[in-house]
Amino acid sequence: MSRDINHCEVCGKEAFVRCDDCTKCDGCGYHGEIIESPTGKELHGLCHYSEGMFCKKCYKKIVKQYIKDFDGDTSYTDNVVCPYCGYESKDSSDFETGDFVCYRCEKKFYIERDERVTFSTSKV
Ligand SMILES: [Zn+2]
Ligand SMILES: [Zn+2]
Ligand SMILES: [Zn+2]
After folding, report:
1. Rounded to an integer, what distance in angstroms lies between the CA atom of residue 73 and that of residue 58?
2. Whole-number mean pLDDT of the chain?
3. Where in the chain is the domain with CATH 2.10.110?
4. Residue 46: which pLDDT band, with cuts at 50, 70 and 90?
5. Residue 75 C-alpha to ligand 3 middle, in angstroms?
């Protein structure tokens, strides 16, 4: 019945993503406004990630852990996978060969796009 109403993902109160009370860092508990800075440099700006809501400082810690834990294969994958943190970029079909900065860990890496080889024939 209430499908079109957003609820706080923590306490279930009617809210957009999170109510004011739950708008805080899941790591350190910092309570503040969500600041979307163009540079993304603010330490205390809370951001909503797939892992939860975190301040920049706490999210950096999470990313560090991802980088430590990741040792997967990033060759010939269906999507672009960051070789540092393992972040998979969905819908990578438009990605070209070249340098790329990971959305999650913000490290630079190199993408080599593999083109599948096909053949066409026509009568001459
Ligand atoms: Zn709440
Ligand atoms: Zn925090
Ligand atoms: Zn990454």
Report:
1. 27
2. 85
3. 1-69
4. confident
5. 15
89 Cα: distance to centroid of ligand 2 (angstroms) = 25
Q: Give the integer Cα–Cα distance in Å for 83 and 86.
A: 6
66 Cβ contact partners less than 8 Å away, ≥ 6 residues apart: 85, 86, 87, 104, 105
Query: How far is CA 36 from its chain centroid?
Result: 15
Ligand 1 ion: residues within 5 Å (CB): 8, 10-11, 13, 19, 22
Determine the distance separating the centroid of ligand 1 and the alpha carbon of 14, expressed in angstroms.
8
CATH code of the region 1-69: 2.10.110
Give the model confidence (pLDDT) of 74-122 as tens digits: 998 989 999 999 999 988 888 999 999 998 999 999 999 988 888 889 8
Q: Of 45, 43, 17, whose CA–CA distance to 6 is shortest?
A: 17
Position 92 scores a pLDDT of: 85
Of 52, 54, 84, the C-alpha closest to 68 is 84
Rounded to two decimals, what is the model's pTM? 0.71
